[in-house]
């Protein structure tokens, strides 16, 4: 029988999150205080995060134990299935074998609850009453809203204004779970009011929304900030994806030659890739090519600069060394809202700088075309963000066809597109346009980077 779906039992959910820092040849650059530009301390992070998450952020230990309370909620949808894309292989007429890990089966329809649940858990344990966050496309905000409902926490979400308008059903989903959703930039914060004063028609950005959320969080002792990507502990939490995929590929008697994931802040790519990359770094497995795919409209890895920058527009967050387009960069309103971020996770940026990952940038029209090819073959309509990974995997499969070689390709289908139907309607009506940034525009965006001596 040609197996399509590889599943695991609940007792095969990973018991620990994986931290790739334990296996990297060189350590990451230190995080710097936004006021002094000196290495930040754990105490500096206390206004934003509970102690347990701060510990996970700074640790270099290989394994971080997953609390039983978190595992019990993970069991609502984990382990997620691994699929062999046999119909897609046939449609492409490729000798490649294509597998995808499907995270759209979670309550929020994406990979984001993998970190929302533990973040809510640790905050609840610390006596926190309210979580403040930002969201682009709404997948992260949806996930934190669900987590807040599970743990009895109030949740407030600053949603990038262009996505707030594009995705009313994402807003409705968050509100159904009790979250308050605010279009960003807003007039509720000093950061938001400043942006609106300069540009009343601002469509917003994740950098702006982060500024608003952080500003509110530091003003209330019972409120903490929660982030859905970028930070080390978030990337650790997502490694349940890759750990499960390792076991499922053992079931299939296979191992990937190529791993593909989309990148905005870096969490879903790290989730699928880092467990395999760690095995490679430890010399336990053969060589793998890792491919990170991003939008041409927000080309952080492919055209950005690896340097210290702020994670938000108002410069309230610590300085981290990462690939960045500049903290004031406001990308065009492409439908892949979860990938519209000026920076990239410092841990993923470090791995890219070490030469362990190849990077690609694709336009949204090509990505939507690939998403529909995938949907009509496999029966799952991807989120616009996930379409970038689909496009990357299809390109690799077609390269195998051209070269007459059979390789095993694994990619992370990080979420479904059920709340993104307007995007697909616009695409099929010919209303979407491709946007790419010139070298001059990139240089201008990078001109305001902080000077670190």
From TrEMBL:
GO terms for cellular component: cytoplasm. Pathway: Amino-acid biosynthesis; L-tryptophan biosynthesis; L-tryptophan from chorismate: step 5/5. Keywords: Amino-acid biosynthesis, Aromatic amino acid biosynthesis, Lyase, Pyridoxal phosphate, Tryptophan biosynthesis. Pfam families: PALP (PF00291). The modification N6-(pyridoxal phosphate)lysine is found at residue 112. Its cofactor is pyridoxal 5'-phosphate. Its EC number is 4.2.1.20. One of its GO terms (molecular function) is tryptophan synthase activity. Residues 76-415 form the Tryptophan synthase beta chain-like PALP domain. It catalyses: (1S,2R)-1-C-(indol-3-yl)glycerol 3-phosphate + L-serine = D-glyceraldehyde 3-phosphate + L-tryptophan + H2O. PANTHER family: TRYPTOPHAN SYNTHASE, TRYPTOPHAN SYNTHASE-RELATED. The beta subunit is responsible for the synthesis of L-tryptophan from indole and L-serine. Tetramer of two alpha and two beta chains. HAMAP family: Trp_synth_beta. Belongs to the TrpB family. This is Tryptophan synthase beta chain. The gene is trpB.
């Amino acid at each position: 029988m040609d197996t399509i779906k590889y599943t695991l039992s609940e007792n095969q959910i990973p018991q620990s999150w994986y931290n790739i820092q334990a296996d990297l040849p060189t350590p990451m650059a230190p995080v710097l205080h936004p006021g002094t530009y000196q290495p930040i301390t754990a105490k500096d992070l206390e206004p934003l995060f509970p102690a347990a998450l701060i510990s996970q952020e700074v640790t270099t230990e290989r394994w971080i134990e997953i609390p039983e309370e978190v595992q019990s909620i993970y069991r609502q949808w984990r382990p997620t299935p691994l699929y062999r894309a046999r119909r897609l292989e046939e449609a492409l007429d490729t000798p490649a074998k294509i597998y995808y890990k499907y995270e759209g089966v979670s309550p929020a329809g994406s990979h984001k609850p993998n970190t929302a649940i533990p973040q809510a858990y640790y905050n609840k344990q610390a006596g926190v009453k309210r979580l403040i966050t930002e969201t682009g496309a709404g997948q992260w905000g949806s996930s934190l809203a669900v987590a807040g409902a599970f743990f009895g926490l109030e949740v407030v979400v600053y949603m990038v204004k262009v996505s707030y308008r594009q995705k009313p059903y994402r807003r409705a989903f968050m509100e159904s779970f009790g979250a308050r959703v605010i279009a960003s930039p807003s007039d509720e914060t000093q950061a938001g009011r400043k942006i609106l004063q300069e540009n009343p028609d601002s469509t917003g950005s994740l950098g702006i929304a982060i500024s608003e959320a952080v500003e509110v969080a530091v003003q209330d002792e019972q409120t903490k900030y929660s982030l859905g990507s970028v930070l080390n502990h978030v990337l650790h939490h997502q490694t349940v994806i890759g750990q499960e995929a390792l076991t499922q590929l053992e079931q299939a008697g296979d191992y990937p030659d190529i791993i593909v994931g989309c990148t905005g802040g870096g969490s879903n790519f790290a989730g699928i890739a880092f467990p395999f990359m760690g095995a490679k770094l430890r010399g336990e497995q053969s060589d793998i090519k890792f491919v990170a795919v991003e939008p041409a409209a927000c080309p952080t890895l492919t055209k950005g600069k690896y340097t210290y920058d702020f994670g938000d527009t108002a410069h309230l967050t610590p300085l981290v060394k990462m690939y960045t387009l500049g903290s004031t960069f406001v990308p065009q309103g492409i439908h892949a809202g979860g990938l519209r971020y000026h920076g990239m996770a410092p841990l993923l940026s470090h791995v890219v700088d070490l030469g362990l990952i190849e990077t690609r940038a694709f336009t949204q029209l090509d990505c939507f075309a690939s998403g529909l090819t995938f949907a009509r073959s496999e029966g799952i309509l991807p989120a616009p963000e996930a379409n970038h990974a689909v496009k990357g995997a299809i390109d690799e499969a077609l390269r195998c066809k051209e070269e007459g070689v059979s390789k095993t390709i694994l990619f992370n289908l990080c979420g479904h597109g059920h709340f993104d139907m307007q995007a697909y309607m616009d695409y099929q009506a010919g209303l979407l346009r491709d946007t790419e940034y010139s070298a001059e525009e990139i240089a201008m965006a990078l001109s305001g980077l902080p000077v670190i001596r």
